[in-house]
TrEMBL record, chains A, B:
Superkingdom classification of source: Bacteria
Keyword terms of this UniProt record: DNA-binding, Transcription, Transcription regulation
Residues annotated as signal peptide: none
This protein's name: Lrp/AsnC family transcriptional regulator
Occurrences of domain HTH asnC-type (ranges): 3-64
Species in which this protein is naturally found: Streptomyces flavofungini
DNA sequence: TATTCGCTGGGCAATATGCGCAGCAGAACA
DNA sequence: TGTTCTGCTGCGCATATTGCCCAGCGAATA
């Protein structure tokens, strides 16, 4: 479950040079090829590494606007709302949360005007009582995981 | 900029079988190897595909708790706050959003109790006036991009 | 009509992969 | 103290893939 320092270095290396081969990775890390192979297998069957899916930029696809919407759901309609939102391609992720509002979702749109269409599509569903939207202006820290990986691997093996 | 249907199929294929080679991809798509190579190069230099970084699961690293925090920032302290949050490994992403100079960030923690430590760390900074946190309970739609890719490629080439 | 562009299909040397193997050091354990 | 695991090493081999070249060809374009 926990990762050691070699795992951490391997993940960082993979993040930096994603299309690197096992052999080259073993050279960079200074370990045997079989070791890298075994570590990668373990990390993947552990679920630490879910996959190596291509990291697609919505903006480059023509969806440069990102927003977060907090949704208030009618009692007992949760499952229907989830199913509805799953069918909307512009809904990139959906969470159920504590506190004010019941769900939080990340939306993308082709423009600010187009965002209105997306929101209408999202909230145009019976179970949704109210939606409150915040448009993203800047993204000073894009989604990242490497610092956490380094922290986790340092926790395990301080050397 | 826009992607055609072949690009879409290629991205979907890469998403489904990430460690696939160029040759195998060309066989699956029924096109020449050079074509796949050229498309991949183009998608990457376009910025449509940012990379193939390993998709690491924070939960498997020992951080199963996710939360979103909305921050209220003291006027003119934005840059300092951004720099501060960038140093906190548990801050996985940070956005500035519309409203009153506010920010939205995604946090992870080792437990609900540990989340308190993270929040203290986040808000224990001069420029932050107030923080409101929503803990994620379920994640019905994990971060995804494939439906949007399919939509974008269908827009371009309906056939 | 001439040109450009993207795709095809082939060939080539160099490289990487998947796989198996034995040896070895350290840790756990009786 | 001796035994058993476990993980890493370093090696070899057959096969598959890569990176790079080329000429031809059809469609769109000037």
């Amino acid at each position: 479950m926990a990762i050691d320092h070699l795992d951490g270095r391997l993940i960082v290396l993979l993040a930096r040079e994603p299309r690197i081969g096992v052999l080259e990775a073993s050279r960079r890390l200074g370990v045997a090829r079989g070791t890298v192979q075994a570590r990668m297998d373990r990390l993947q069957s552990n679920g630490v590494i879910r996959g190596f899916g291509p990291d697609v930029d919505p903006a480059a696809l023509g969806y440069p606007v990102t927003a977060f919407a907090t949704l208030e759901i009618k009692q007992g309609q949760g499952a229907d709302v989830r199913a509805h939102l799953a069918t909307v391609a512009e809904v990139l992720e959906l969470h159920t949360i504590t506190g004010h509002g019941d769900m939080l979702c990340r939306l993308v749109a082709r423009s600010n005007a187009d965002l209105q269409r997306v929101i209408d599509r999202v909230v145009g569903f019976d179970g949704i009582v109210r939606a409150s939207t915040a448009i993203v202006m800047e993204n000073p820290v894009p989604l990242r995981i490497i610092p956490l990986v380094e922290q986790a691997s340092d926790d395990t093996e301080p050397g």
